[in-house]
Design brief:
With 413 residues, the protein is α/β, with parallel strands linked by helices. A 5-stranded parallel sheet has the order 5-2-1-9-20, covered by helices on one side. Helix content is 29%, strand content 25%. The N terminus is likely disordered. A hairpin with a 2-residue loop joins strand 6 and strand 7. Keywords: FAD, Flavoprotein, Oxidoreductase.
Length: 413
Amino acid sequence: MTTRRTVLAGLAALPLATRVRAQDRGRVVVVGGGFGGATAARFLARAGHNVTLVERDPAFVTCPFSNTVLAGLNPLEAITFDWSGLRADGVTLVQDEATGVDDGSLALASGDPLPFDRLILSPGIDLRYGALPGYDEAAAQIMPHAWKAGAQTALLRAQLEAMEDGGTVVITAPANPYRCPPGPYERASLIADYLTREKPASKILILDAKEAFSKQPLFEEAWATLYPGMIEWVPPSMGGNVAEVDPGTMTVATDFMSYTPAVANVIPPQRAAAIAQDAGVADETGWCPVSGLTFESDLRPNIHVIGDACFPGAMPKSAFSANAQAKVTAQAIDAIFRGADPVSPKLMNTCYSLAGPDYGFTVAGVYGEADGKLFELEEAGGISPVGAPPEVRSAEADYARSWYATITHESVG
Protein backbone atom coordinates (compact mmCIF):
# COMPACT_ATOMS: atom_id res chain seq x y z
CA MET A 1 0.00 0.00 0.00
CA THR A 2 1.30 3.45 -0.93
CA THR A 3 1.35 5.83 2.01
CA ARG A 4 2.09 9.52 2.40
CA ARG A 5 5.32 8.62 4.17
CA THR A 6 6.66 6.39 1.37
CA VAL A 7 5.70 8.81 -1.40
CA LEU A 8 7.35 11.83 0.19
CA ALA A 9 10.37 9.91 1.42
CA GLY A 10 11.12 8.78 -2.11
CA LEU A 11 11.04 12.36 -3.35
CA ALA A 12 12.99 14.03 -0.61
CA ALA A 13 15.61 11.63 0.71
CA LEU A 14 18.61 12.38 -1.51
CA PRO A 15 18.70 16.19 -1.59
CA LEU A 16 17.85 16.79 2.08
CA ALA A 17 20.21 14.12 3.33
CA THR A 18 23.16 15.61 1.43
CA ARG A 19 24.22 18.25 3.92
CA VAL A 20 27.92 18.17 2.97
CA ARG A 21 28.47 19.85 -0.37
CA ALA A 22 29.99 17.71 -3.08
CA GLN A 23 32.07 19.06 -5.93
CA ASP A 24 29.86 21.20 -8.15
CA ARG A 25 28.57 19.05 -10.99
CA GLY A 26 26.47 21.49 -12.99
CA ARG A 27 25.23 25.04 -13.28
CA VAL A 28 21.53 25.49 -12.56
CA VAL A 29 19.67 28.78 -12.82
CA VAL A 30 16.25 28.98 -11.16
CA VAL A 31 13.73 31.73 -11.91
CA GLY A 32 11.19 32.44 -9.18
CA GLY A 33 11.60 32.06 -5.44
CA GLY A 34 8.20 30.65 -4.51
CA PHE A 35 7.34 27.21 -3.22
CA GLY A 36 8.61 25.58 -6.41
CA GLY A 37 11.72 27.58 -7.25
CA ALA A 38 13.01 28.03 -3.71
CA THR A 39 12.61 24.32 -2.93
CA ALA A 40 14.36 23.25 -6.12
CA ALA A 41 17.21 25.69 -5.52
CA ARG A 42 17.78 24.51 -1.94
CA PHE A 43 17.68 20.81 -2.81
CA LEU A 44 20.07 21.16 -5.74
CA ALA A 45 22.49 23.32 -3.75
CA ARG A 46 22.50 20.76 -0.95
CA ALA A 47 23.24 18.07 -3.56
CA GLY A 48 26.39 19.94 -4.55
CA HIS A 49 25.38 21.90 -7.61
CA ASN A 50 26.11 25.50 -8.53
CA VAL A 51 22.70 27.15 -8.14
CA THR A 52 21.66 30.74 -8.83
CA LEU A 53 18.14 31.91 -8.02
CA VAL A 54 16.79 34.93 -9.91
CA GLU A 55 13.97 36.64 -8.04
CA ARG A 56 12.69 40.16 -8.67
CA ASP A 57 11.05 40.72 -5.28
CA PRO A 58 12.99 41.50 -2.08
CA ALA A 59 10.79 39.15 -0.05
CA PHE A 60 8.43 36.23 -0.53
CA VAL A 61 4.81 36.96 0.38
CA THR A 62 2.87 33.71 0.24
CA CYS A 63 -0.50 33.27 -1.41
CA PRO A 64 -1.32 30.40 0.97
CA PHE A 65 -2.64 31.91 4.19
CA SER A 66 -3.09 35.34 2.57
CA ASN A 67 -6.82 34.87 3.12
CA THR A 68 -6.13 34.88 6.86
CA VAL A 69 -4.74 38.38 6.43
CA LEU A 70 -7.97 39.46 4.73
CA ALA A 71 -9.88 38.08 7.72
CA GLY A 72 -7.71 39.94 10.21
CA LEU A 73 -6.41 36.69 11.67
CA ASN A 74 -2.78 37.40 10.71
CA PRO A 75 -0.76 40.49 9.81
CA LEU A 76 0.89 40.64 6.40
CA GLU A 77 4.25 40.19 8.11
CA ALA A 78 3.23 36.69 9.19
CA ILE A 79 3.19 35.50 5.56
CA THR A 80 6.34 37.40 4.49
CA PHE A 81 9.77 35.69 4.31
CA ASP A 82 13.27 36.72 3.31
CA TRP A 83 15.90 34.72 1.41
CA SER A 84 18.45 34.21 4.20
CA GLY A 85 17.71 30.49 4.48
CA LEU A 86 18.53 29.97 0.80
CA ARG A 87 21.81 31.86 1.09
CA ALA A 88 22.73 29.74 4.10
CA ASP A 89 22.37 26.63 1.92
CA GLY A 90 24.73 28.02 -0.71
CA VAL A 91 22.23 29.40 -3.21
CA THR A 92 23.39 32.56 -5.01
CA LEU A 93 20.61 35.16 -5.03
CA VAL A 94 20.20 37.64 -7.89
CA GLN A 95 17.45 40.22 -7.48
CA ASP A 96 16.52 40.98 -11.07
CA GLU A 97 13.91 40.44 -13.76
CA ALA A 98 14.32 37.53 -16.17
CA THR A 99 13.45 38.72 -19.68
CA GLY A 100 14.22 35.85 -22.03
CA VAL A 101 16.23 32.75 -22.78
CA ASP A 102 18.92 32.37 -25.42
CA ASP A 103 20.80 29.16 -26.06
CA GLY A 104 22.28 28.27 -22.70
CA SER A 105 21.80 31.63 -20.98
CA LEU A 106 19.10 33.61 -19.18
CA ALA A 107 18.70 37.26 -20.14
CA LEU A 108 18.22 39.76 -17.30
CA ALA A 109 16.69 43.22 -17.28
CA SER A 110 19.79 44.79 -15.71
CA GLY A 111 22.97 42.78 -16.02
CA ASP A 112 24.93 40.24 -17.97
CA PRO A 113 23.20 37.03 -19.07
CA LEU A 114 23.45 34.06 -16.73
CA PRO A 115 24.79 30.89 -18.39
CA PHE A 116 23.27 27.57 -17.34
CA ASP A 117 23.43 23.87 -18.02
CA ARG A 118 19.85 23.49 -16.83
CA LEU A 119 17.21 26.19 -16.29
CA ILE A 120 14.24 25.82 -13.92
CA LEU A 121 11.37 28.23 -14.45
CA SER A 122 9.00 28.58 -11.51
CA PRO A 123 7.55 32.00 -12.35
CA GLY A 124 3.97 31.54 -11.21
CA ILE A 125 1.09 33.18 -13.04
CA ASP A 126 0.25 36.40 -14.79
CA LEU A 127 -3.24 37.84 -14.77
CA ARG A 128 -4.79 38.08 -18.21
CA TYR A 129 -5.67 41.75 -18.11
CA GLY A 130 -8.14 42.47 -20.87
CA ALA A 131 -9.57 38.95 -20.94
CA LEU A 132 -12.39 40.31 -18.76
CA PRO A 133 -13.65 43.52 -20.44
CA GLY A 134 -12.99 46.56 -18.26
CA TYR A 135 -10.38 44.88 -16.06
CA ASP A 136 -6.79 46.09 -16.39
CA GLU A 137 -3.94 47.06 -14.08
CA ALA A 138 -5.59 50.38 -13.25
CA ALA A 139 -8.87 48.64 -12.45
CA ALA A 140 -7.03 46.33 -10.07
CA GLN A 141 -6.28 49.34 -7.86
CA ILE A 142 -10.03 49.82 -7.37
CA MET A 143 -11.25 46.23 -7.71
CA PRO A 144 -8.27 44.28 -6.35
CA HIS A 145 -7.63 40.71 -7.40
CA ALA A 146 -5.31 39.91 -4.46
CA TRP A 147 -4.31 36.77 -6.37
CA LYS A 148 -0.67 37.77 -6.04
CA ALA A 149 -0.06 38.31 -2.35
CA GLY A 150 1.43 41.53 -1.02
CA ALA A 151 0.24 45.03 -1.88
CA GLN A 152 -3.00 43.69 -3.36
CA THR A 153 -3.70 41.74 -0.17
CA ALA A 154 -3.21 44.89 1.90
CA LEU A 155 -5.46 46.87 -0.45
CA LEU A 156 -8.33 44.39 -0.27
CA ARG A 157 -8.00 44.17 3.51
CA ALA A 158 -8.16 47.98 3.78
CA GLN A 159 -11.31 48.05 1.64
CA LEU A 160 -12.98 45.45 3.84
CA GLU A 161 -12.09 47.44 6.94
CA ALA A 162 -13.47 50.65 5.42
CA MET A 163 -16.74 49.09 4.25
CA GLU A 164 -19.81 50.01 6.27
CA ASP A 165 -21.84 47.30 7.95
CA GLY A 166 -24.53 46.11 5.59
CA GLY A 167 -22.35 46.34 2.48
CA THR A 168 -21.97 43.62 -0.12
CA VAL A 169 -18.67 42.02 -1.12
CA VAL A 170 -18.59 40.54 -4.62
CA ILE A 171 -15.96 37.90 -5.45
CA THR A 172 -15.63 36.85 -9.08
CA ALA A 173 -14.23 33.36 -9.67
CA PRO A 174 -12.71 32.49 -13.07
CA ALA A 175 -13.04 29.41 -15.22
CA ASN A 176 -10.47 26.62 -14.84
CA PRO A 177 -7.52 26.38 -14.89
CA TYR A 178 -6.19 28.95 -12.43
CA ARG A 179 -3.99 29.17 -9.36
CA CYS A 180 -5.43 27.42 -6.27
CA PRO A 181 -8.85 26.12 -7.38
CA PRO A 182 -10.48 26.28 -3.89
CA GLY A 183 -8.95 29.70 -3.12
CA PRO A 184 -11.94 31.94 -3.96
CA TYR A 185 -14.21 29.88 -1.73
CA GLU A 186 -11.80 29.83 1.20
CA ARG A 187 -11.53 33.59 0.71
CA ALA A 188 -15.29 34.00 0.90
CA SER A 189 -15.32 31.89 4.05
CA LEU A 190 -12.63 33.83 5.89
CA ILE A 191 -14.00 37.21 4.82
CA ALA A 192 -17.32 35.98 6.22
CA ASP A 193 -15.57 35.18 9.49
CA TYR A 194 -14.38 38.80 9.67
CA LEU A 195 -17.78 40.20 8.72
CA THR A 196 -19.55 38.00 11.25
CA ARG A 197 -17.36 39.45 13.97
CA GLU A 198 -17.28 43.08 12.83
CA LYS A 199 -20.03 43.77 10.26
CA PRO A 200 -22.70 41.12 10.66
CA ALA A 201 -25.32 42.76 8.42
CA SER A 202 -23.05 42.43 5.39
CA LYS A 203 -23.27 39.88 2.55
CA ILE A 204 -20.90 38.06 0.20
CA LEU A 205 -21.81 37.21 -3.38
CA ILE A 206 -19.64 34.80 -5.39
CA LEU A 207 -20.15 35.23 -9.14
CA ASP A 208 -18.69 32.13 -10.75
CA ALA A 209 -17.75 31.13 -14.30
CA LYS A 210 -18.08 27.43 -13.31
CA GLU A 211 -21.03 25.16 -12.60
CA ALA A 212 -19.12 23.42 -9.80
CA PHE A 213 -16.02 24.12 -7.74
CA SER A 214 -13.38 22.37 -5.68
CA LYS A 215 -14.57 20.93 -2.33
CA GLN A 216 -18.04 22.35 -2.98
CA PRO A 217 -19.99 20.13 -0.53
CA LEU A 218 -17.51 20.91 2.24
CA PHE A 219 -17.60 24.65 1.68
CA GLU A 220 -21.38 24.72 1.43
CA GLU A 221 -21.65 22.74 4.66
CA ALA A 222 -19.28 25.20 6.35
CA TRP A 223 -21.23 28.22 5.10
CA ALA A 224 -24.51 26.80 6.38
CA THR A 225 -22.91 26.00 9.75
CA LEU A 226 -20.80 29.10 10.34
CA TYR A 227 -22.34 31.87 8.22
CA PRO A 228 -26.01 31.06 7.51
CA GLY A 229 -27.46 33.45 4.96
CA MET A 230 -24.27 35.49 4.52
CA ILE A 231 -22.66 33.83 1.45
CA GLU A 232 -24.45 33.31 -1.86
CA TRP A 233 -22.80 31.37 -4.70
CA VAL A 234 -24.10 32.02 -8.23
CA PRO A 235 -23.04 29.64 -11.04
CA PRO A 236 -23.26 30.65 -14.71
CA SER A 237 -26.56 28.83 -15.19
CA MET A 238 -28.03 31.19 -12.58
CA GLY A 239 -26.41 34.31 -14.04
CA GLY A 240 -23.03 34.15 -12.33
CA ASN A 241 -20.75 34.51 -15.34
CA VAL A 242 -19.18 37.97 -15.26
CA ALA A 243 -19.25 39.68 -18.66
CA GLU A 244 -17.54 42.98 -17.81
CA VAL A 245 -16.60 45.33 -14.98
CA ASP A 246 -16.53 49.11 -14.68
CA PRO A 247 -14.26 50.34 -11.87
CA GLY A 248 -15.43 53.93 -12.44
CA THR A 249 -18.95 53.06 -11.32
CA MET A 250 -18.01 50.00 -9.22
CA THR A 251 -20.19 47.87 -11.46
CA VAL A 252 -19.85 44.15 -11.99
CA ALA A 253 -22.07 43.01 -14.86
CA THR A 254 -23.02 39.40 -15.55
CA ASP A 255 -24.83 38.06 -18.59
CA PHE A 256 -28.14 38.95 -16.91
CA MET A 257 -27.64 41.45 -14.07
CA SER A 258 -25.43 44.27 -12.82
CA TYR A 259 -24.16 44.70 -9.26
CA THR A 260 -22.62 47.71 -7.50
CA PRO A 261 -20.92 46.20 -4.44
CA ALA A 262 -19.13 48.06 -1.70
CA VAL A 263 -16.07 45.88 -2.33
CA ALA A 264 -15.28 43.99 -5.55
CA ASN A 265 -12.63 41.27 -5.50
CA VAL A 266 -12.18 40.48 -9.19
CA ILE A 267 -10.12 37.35 -9.88
CA PRO A 268 -9.50 37.35 -13.64
CA PRO A 269 -8.36 34.54 -15.97
CA GLN A 270 -4.70 33.61 -15.74
CA ARG A 271 -1.77 32.12 -17.65
CA ALA A 272 1.88 31.24 -17.06
CA ALA A 273 3.98 34.30 -16.21
CA ALA A 274 5.60 36.43 -18.92
CA ILE A 275 9.04 34.81 -18.80
CA ALA A 276 7.46 31.48 -19.76
CA GLN A 277 5.90 33.13 -22.81
CA ASP A 278 9.18 34.91 -23.66
CA ALA A 279 11.19 31.70 -23.26
CA GLY A 280 8.95 29.84 -25.69
CA VAL A 281 7.85 27.15 -23.24
CA ALA A 282 4.15 28.13 -23.13
CA ASP A 283 1.74 26.88 -25.78
CA GLU A 284 -1.47 28.34 -27.16
CA THR A 285 -3.29 27.63 -23.89
CA GLY A 286 -0.99 30.03 -22.04
CA TRP A 287 0.42 27.21 -19.88
CA CYS A 288 3.62 25.16 -20.18
CA PRO A 289 3.41 21.50 -21.25
CA VAL A 290 6.11 19.47 -19.50
CA SER A 291 7.27 15.92 -18.95
CA GLY A 292 5.76 14.24 -15.91
CA LEU A 293 9.07 12.41 -15.48
CA THR A 294 11.50 15.36 -15.25
CA PHE A 295 9.30 18.47 -15.71
CA GLU A 296 11.44 19.34 -18.73
CA SER A 297 9.60 21.47 -21.26
CA ASP A 298 7.92 19.70 -24.16
CA LEU A 299 8.85 22.71 -26.31
CA ARG A 300 12.48 23.53 -25.42
CA PRO A 301 15.23 21.21 -24.13
CA ASN A 302 17.18 21.85 -20.91
CA ILE A 303 14.41 24.05 -19.51
CA HIS A 304 12.22 22.67 -16.71
CA VAL A 305 8.96 24.35 -15.65
CA ILE A 306 7.36 23.73 -12.26
CA GLY A 307 4.61 25.18 -10.11
CA ASP A 308 1.55 27.09 -11.24
CA ALA A 309 2.97 27.80 -14.72
CA CYS A 310 3.31 24.17 -15.79
CA PHE A 311 0.90 21.63 -17.19
CA PRO A 312 2.22 18.11 -16.46
CA GLY A 313 -1.12 16.33 -16.73
CA ALA A 314 -3.60 15.76 -13.90
CA MET A 315 -1.88 17.64 -11.05
CA PRO A 316 -3.60 20.82 -9.80
CA LYS A 317 -1.97 24.21 -9.29
CA SER A 318 -1.10 24.54 -5.59
CA ALA A 319 1.81 25.28 -3.27
CA PHE A 320 1.95 21.62 -2.27
CA SER A 321 2.14 20.61 -5.95
CA ALA A 322 4.91 23.12 -6.64
CA ASN A 323 6.92 21.87 -3.67
CA ALA A 324 6.56 18.23 -4.76
CA GLN A 325 7.37 19.05 -8.38
CA ALA A 326 10.50 20.88 -7.23
CA LYS A 327 11.77 17.77 -5.46
CA VAL A 328 11.15 15.57 -8.50
CA THR A 329 12.86 18.10 -10.77
CA ALA A 330 15.85 18.46 -8.45
CA GLN A 331 16.33 14.69 -8.34
CA ALA A 332 15.92 14.42 -12.11
CA ILE A 333 18.52 17.13 -12.80
CA ASP A 334 20.89 15.60 -10.25
CA ALA A 335 20.52 12.23 -12.03
CA ILE A 336 21.09 13.79 -15.46
CA PHE A 337 24.29 15.49 -14.26
CA ARG A 338 25.49 12.17 -12.84
CA GLY A 339 24.72 10.35 -16.09
CA ALA A 340 21.91 8.33 -14.48
CA ASP A 341 18.31 7.85 -15.55
CA PRO A 342 15.66 9.85 -13.69
CA VAL A 343 13.29 7.71 -11.64
CA SER A 344 9.61 7.68 -12.58
CA PRO A 345 8.03 9.61 -9.69
CA LYS A 346 4.93 9.45 -7.61
CA LEU A 347 3.81 12.83 -6.32
CA MET A 348 1.28 13.87 -3.75
CA ASN A 349 -0.85 16.98 -3.45
CA THR A 350 -2.74 17.80 -0.28
CA CYS A 351 -4.89 20.91 -0.33
CA TYR A 352 -5.88 22.41 3.02
CA SER A 353 -8.70 24.93 3.30
CA LEU A 354 -9.84 27.03 6.24
CA ALA A 355 -13.50 27.98 6.42
CA GLY A 356 -12.93 29.57 9.82
CA PRO A 357 -10.14 29.83 12.41
CA ASP A 358 -11.10 26.45 13.87
CA TYR A 359 -12.78 24.87 10.86
CA GLY A 360 -10.66 23.11 8.23
CA PHE A 361 -10.82 20.31 5.68
CA THR A 362 -8.57 18.71 3.08
CA VAL A 363 -8.45 16.87 -0.21
CA ALA A 364 -5.47 14.77 -1.27
CA GLY A 365 -4.39 13.09 -4.49
CA VAL A 366 -1.48 10.90 -5.54
CA TYR A 367 -0.10 11.10 -9.07
CA GLY A 368 1.97 8.70 -11.13
CA GLU A 369 3.82 9.12 -14.41
CA ALA A 370 3.11 7.20 -17.60
CA ASP A 371 4.12 8.06 -21.17
CA GLY A 372 5.57 11.34 -19.98
CA LYS A 373 2.45 12.72 -18.28
CA LEU A 374 0.97 12.58 -14.80
CA PHE A 375 -2.27 10.81 -13.98
CA GLU A 376 -4.14 10.51 -10.69
CA LEU A 377 -3.91 7.13 -9.00
CA GLU A 378 -7.33 5.75 -8.19
CA GLU A 379 -8.18 5.14 -4.53
CA ALA A 380 -4.86 6.64 -3.41
CA GLY A 381 -6.10 10.04 -2.23
CA GLY A 382 -9.08 11.17 -0.23
CA ILE A 383 -11.24 14.04 0.94
CA SER A 384 -12.54 15.08 4.32
CA PRO A 385 -16.02 13.71 4.97
CA VAL A 386 -19.09 15.88 4.99
CA GLY A 387 -20.72 15.87 8.40
CA ALA A 388 -17.55 15.50 10.47
CA PRO A 389 -17.85 16.67 14.10
CA PRO A 390 -16.42 20.02 15.27
CA GLU A 391 -13.37 18.43 16.88
CA VAL A 392 -12.37 16.95 13.51
CA ARG A 393 -12.77 20.30 11.78
CA SER A 394 -10.69 21.96 14.52
CA ALA A 395 -7.97 19.34 14.18
CA GLU A 396 -7.85 19.86 10.41
CA ALA A 397 -7.46 23.60 10.92
CA ASP A 398 -4.46 22.81 13.12
CA TYR A 399 -3.10 20.51 10.41
CA ALA A 400 -3.38 23.36 7.91
CA ARG A 401 -1.36 25.67 10.13
CA SER A 402 1.24 22.96 10.73
CA TRP A 403 1.51 22.30 7.00
CA TYR A 404 2.06 26.00 6.34
CA ALA A 405 4.82 26.21 8.92
CA THR A 406 6.48 23.11 7.45
CA ILE A 407 6.32 24.08 3.78
CA THR A 408 7.58 27.63 4.33
CA HIS A 409 10.46 26.30 6.42
CA GLU A 410 11.32 23.68 3.80
CA SER A 411 11.10 26.14 0.90
CA VAL A 412 12.77 29.30 2.18
CA GLY A 413 14.01 28.28 5.61
